Amino acid sequence: MSKKQISSFVDLTLFKQDIAELVQIFQNYLQDVEFVIDERRIVESTQLEQYEAAYQAQSLLARGYWSGTTGKDADGQSERLLIELRMNKVMAVLTGWDSVGKSEFLERIRKVLLRRNTSMQQTLQVVTVGLFLGPLLSVILLLERHSISSILQLLSEIGAIILAIPVFVLLFAFIVKRLKLEKRIFLFPGKTTTTQVYHRSGMVARLVVALVLLIVFDGFLVILFRLL
Fold first, then answer.
1. Which of 25, 29, 85, 186 could be disulfide-bonded to 198 (CB atoms 3.0-4.6 Å)?
2. DSSP states of 43-61 as a string?
Protein backbone atom coordinates (compact mmCIF):
# COMPACT_ATOMS: atom_id res chain seq x y z
CA MET A 1 0.00 0.00 0.00
CA SER A 2 1.17 3.50 -0.84
CA LYS A 3 1.76 5.77 2.16
CA LYS A 4 0.29 9.26 2.39
CA GLN A 5 2.69 12.22 2.36
CA ILE A 6 1.69 15.66 3.61
CA SER A 7 3.77 18.77 2.94
CA SER A 8 2.98 22.24 4.28
CA PHE A 9 4.12 25.59 2.91
CA VAL A 10 3.94 29.15 4.25
CA ASP A 11 4.89 32.63 3.05
CA LEU A 12 3.87 32.08 -0.57
CA THR A 13 2.83 34.54 -3.27
CA LEU A 14 1.16 33.19 -6.42
CA PHE A 15 0.15 35.21 -9.47
CA LYS A 16 -1.91 34.38 -12.57
CA GLN A 17 1.05 32.70 -14.28
CA ASP A 18 1.66 30.43 -11.29
CA ILE A 19 -2.00 29.50 -10.82
CA ALA A 20 -2.41 28.85 -14.54
CA GLU A 21 0.59 26.51 -14.40
CA LEU A 22 -0.95 24.66 -11.43
CA VAL A 23 -4.17 24.19 -13.43
CA GLN A 24 -2.18 22.77 -16.35
CA ILE A 25 -0.11 20.42 -14.19
CA PHE A 26 -3.13 18.98 -12.41
CA GLN A 27 -5.01 18.48 -15.67
CA ASN A 28 -2.02 16.91 -17.43
CA TYR A 29 -1.19 14.39 -14.71
CA LEU A 30 -4.45 13.63 -12.89
CA GLN A 31 -7.98 12.44 -13.63
CA ASP A 32 -11.31 13.91 -12.47
CA VAL A 33 -9.60 17.19 -11.64
CA GLU A 34 -11.39 19.80 -9.54
CA PHE A 35 -9.85 23.26 -9.33
CA VAL A 36 -11.65 25.91 -7.25
CA ILE A 37 -10.73 29.49 -6.29
CA ASP A 38 -13.03 31.10 -3.72
CA GLU A 39 -15.82 28.66 -4.63
CA ARG A 40 -15.44 29.41 -8.36
CA ARG A 41 -14.68 26.31 -10.39
CA ILE A 42 -11.79 26.72 -12.84
CA VAL A 43 -11.94 24.38 -15.83
CA GLU A 44 -9.26 26.06 -17.92
CA SER A 45 -6.64 28.70 -17.23
CA THR A 46 -8.32 31.26 -19.53
CA GLN A 47 -10.98 31.67 -16.84
CA LEU A 48 -8.42 33.53 -14.76
CA GLU A 49 -9.10 36.53 -17.01
CA GLN A 50 -12.34 37.08 -15.07
CA TYR A 51 -10.37 38.21 -12.01
CA GLU A 52 -9.25 41.80 -11.63
CA ALA A 53 -5.55 42.40 -11.06
CA ALA A 54 -6.12 43.64 -7.51
CA TYR A 55 -8.32 40.69 -6.51
CA GLN A 56 -6.90 38.68 -3.60
CA ALA A 57 -8.27 35.16 -3.35
CA GLN A 58 -8.89 33.73 0.11
CA SER A 59 -8.69 30.04 -0.77
CA LEU A 60 -7.65 27.61 -3.47
CA LEU A 61 -8.49 23.93 -3.79
CA ALA A 62 -6.96 21.65 -6.41
CA ARG A 63 -7.58 17.92 -6.39
CA GLY A 64 -7.58 14.94 -8.70
CA TYR A 65 -6.83 11.24 -8.88
CA TRP A 66 -3.51 9.69 -9.77
CA SER A 67 -3.87 6.38 -11.59
CA GLY A 68 -0.27 5.59 -12.41
CA THR A 69 1.45 2.27 -11.79
CA THR A 70 0.88 2.13 -8.04
CA GLY A 71 0.09 -1.55 -7.76
CA LYS A 72 -3.08 -3.64 -8.05
CA ASP A 73 -5.82 -4.21 -5.54
CA ALA A 74 -7.63 -7.48 -4.89
CA ASP A 75 -9.90 -7.01 -7.93
CA GLY A 76 -7.02 -6.30 -10.27
CA GLN A 77 -7.89 -2.61 -10.62
CA SER A 78 -5.27 0.13 -10.67
CA GLU A 79 -5.09 2.02 -7.40
CA ARG A 80 -6.53 5.56 -7.67
CA LEU A 81 -4.89 7.96 -5.26
CA LEU A 82 -6.36 11.34 -4.35
CA ILE A 83 -3.90 14.23 -4.73
CA GLU A 84 -4.95 17.47 -3.08
CA LEU A 85 -3.60 20.99 -2.69
CA ARG A 86 -5.43 23.24 -0.21
CA MET A 87 -4.47 26.85 0.32
CA ASN A 88 -5.89 29.50 2.62
CA LYS A 89 -4.51 32.76 3.98
CA VAL A 90 -2.34 30.97 6.57
CA MET A 91 -0.96 27.82 4.96
CA ALA A 92 -0.79 25.64 1.87
CA VAL A 93 -1.03 21.87 2.35
CA LEU A 94 -0.12 19.38 -0.38
CA THR A 95 -1.33 15.82 0.17
CA GLY A 96 0.29 13.12 -1.97
CA TRP A 97 1.59 9.56 -1.78
CA ASP A 98 5.07 8.08 -1.71
CA SER A 99 4.49 6.17 -4.96
CA VAL A 100 3.47 9.41 -6.70
CA GLY A 101 6.55 11.09 -5.28
CA LYS A 102 8.71 9.00 -7.60
CA SER A 103 7.24 10.84 -10.58
CA GLU A 104 7.88 14.45 -11.61
CA PHE A 105 4.33 15.55 -10.75
CA LEU A 106 4.78 16.51 -7.09
CA GLU A 107 8.18 18.02 -7.80
CA ARG A 108 6.64 20.32 -10.41
CA ILE A 109 3.95 21.39 -7.93
CA ARG A 110 6.55 22.20 -5.27
CA LYS A 111 8.62 24.12 -7.83
CA VAL A 112 5.65 26.37 -8.66
CA LEU A 113 4.80 26.93 -5.00
CA LEU A 114 8.38 27.82 -4.05
CA ARG A 115 9.18 29.79 -7.18
CA ARG A 116 9.36 33.15 -5.38
CA ASN A 117 10.94 32.01 -2.13
CA THR A 118 14.38 33.60 -1.79
CA SER A 119 17.21 32.48 0.45
CA MET A 120 16.60 35.50 2.69
CA GLN A 121 12.96 34.53 3.19
CA GLN A 122 13.96 30.96 3.99
CA THR A 123 16.47 32.29 6.53
CA LEU A 124 13.77 34.38 8.22
CA GLN A 125 11.55 31.30 8.43
CA VAL A 126 14.30 29.21 10.03
CA VAL A 127 15.24 31.94 12.52
CA THR A 128 11.60 32.46 13.54
CA VAL A 129 11.08 28.73 14.08
CA GLY A 130 14.37 28.57 16.00
CA LEU A 131 13.12 31.22 18.42
CA PHE A 132 10.31 28.85 19.39
CA LEU A 133 12.96 26.66 21.05
CA GLY A 134 14.18 29.61 23.10
CA PRO A 135 11.89 29.06 26.13
CA LEU A 136 12.96 25.42 26.44
CA LEU A 137 16.64 26.34 26.32
CA SER A 138 16.05 29.10 28.87
CA VAL A 139 14.41 26.66 31.29
CA ILE A 140 17.26 24.16 30.89
CA LEU A 141 19.90 26.85 31.53
CA LEU A 142 18.05 28.10 34.60
CA LEU A 143 17.76 24.55 35.96
CA GLU A 144 21.52 24.10 35.70
CA ARG A 145 22.03 27.11 37.98
CA HIS A 146 19.15 26.32 40.31
CA SER A 147 19.34 23.79 43.12
CA ILE A 148 16.28 21.60 43.82
CA SER A 149 15.27 21.56 47.49
CA SER A 150 11.82 19.94 47.45
CA ILE A 151 9.56 17.62 45.47
CA LEU A 152 7.14 20.51 44.86
CA GLN A 153 9.93 22.57 43.39
CA LEU A 154 10.98 19.65 41.20
CA LEU A 155 7.42 19.20 39.92
CA SER A 156 7.16 22.93 39.24
CA GLU A 157 10.33 22.88 37.18
CA ILE A 158 9.23 19.80 35.24
CA GLY A 159 5.93 21.56 34.54
CA ALA A 160 7.83 24.61 33.33
CA ILE A 161 9.78 22.47 30.87
CA ILE A 162 6.63 20.79 29.54
CA LEU A 163 4.67 24.03 29.16
CA ALA A 164 7.43 26.35 27.96
CA ILE A 165 7.11 25.85 24.21
CA PRO A 166 3.28 25.37 24.02
CA VAL A 167 2.67 28.53 26.05
CA PHE A 168 5.14 30.46 23.91
CA VAL A 169 3.49 29.24 20.69
CA LEU A 170 -0.02 30.10 21.93
CA LEU A 171 1.05 33.57 23.00
CA PHE A 172 2.80 34.11 19.68
CA ALA A 173 -0.29 32.99 17.73
CA PHE A 174 -2.54 35.25 19.83
CA ILE A 175 -0.35 38.33 19.34
CA VAL A 176 0.10 37.69 15.62
CA LYS A 177 -3.66 37.39 15.17
CA ARG A 178 -4.33 40.54 17.19
CA LEU A 179 -1.84 42.44 15.05
CA LYS A 180 -3.39 40.93 11.89
CA LEU A 181 -0.10 39.38 10.83
CA GLU A 182 -1.46 35.85 10.36
CA LYS A 183 -1.81 36.06 6.58
CA ARG A 184 1.03 34.11 4.97
CA ILE A 185 -0.44 33.05 1.60
CA PHE A 186 -1.16 35.65 -1.09
CA LEU A 187 -3.16 34.56 -4.14
CA PHE A 188 -3.61 36.93 -7.08
CA PRO A 189 -5.37 34.99 -9.87
CA GLY A 190 -5.72 38.14 -12.00
CA LYS A 191 -2.35 39.83 -11.47
CA THR A 192 0.37 39.37 -14.07
CA THR A 193 3.12 41.25 -12.17
CA THR A 194 5.76 38.73 -11.17
CA THR A 195 8.30 40.92 -9.39
CA GLN A 196 6.47 41.65 -6.13
CA VAL A 197 6.45 39.39 -3.10
CA TYR A 198 3.86 40.42 -0.56
CA HIS A 199 4.84 38.57 2.59
CA ARG A 200 8.32 39.99 3.32
CA SER A 201 7.18 42.69 5.73
CA GLY A 202 4.91 40.20 7.50
CA MET A 203 7.80 37.76 7.93
CA VAL A 204 9.99 40.45 9.49
CA ALA A 205 7.14 41.59 11.75
CA ARG A 206 6.49 38.04 12.98
CA LEU A 207 10.22 37.60 13.65
CA VAL A 208 10.24 40.79 15.75
CA VAL A 209 7.14 39.59 17.66
CA ALA A 210 8.82 36.25 18.40
CA LEU A 211 12.03 37.96 19.55
CA VAL A 212 10.27 40.43 21.86
CA LEU A 213 8.06 37.67 23.24
CA LEU A 214 11.14 35.53 23.94
CA ILE A 215 12.79 38.38 25.86
CA VAL A 216 9.64 38.92 27.95
CA PHE A 217 9.25 35.16 28.46
CA ASP A 218 12.86 34.80 29.64
CA GLY A 219 12.41 37.67 32.08
CA PHE A 220 9.30 36.03 33.50
CA LEU A 221 11.13 32.71 33.90
CA VAL A 222 14.02 34.37 35.76
CA ILE A 223 11.62 36.01 38.20
CA LEU A 224 9.66 32.77 38.63
CA PHE A 225 12.75 30.69 39.39
CA ARG A 226 14.00 33.25 41.92
CA LEU A 227 10.66 33.03 43.75
CA LEU A 228 10.73 29.22 43.88
1. 186
2. SSGGGGGGS-TT--BS-EE
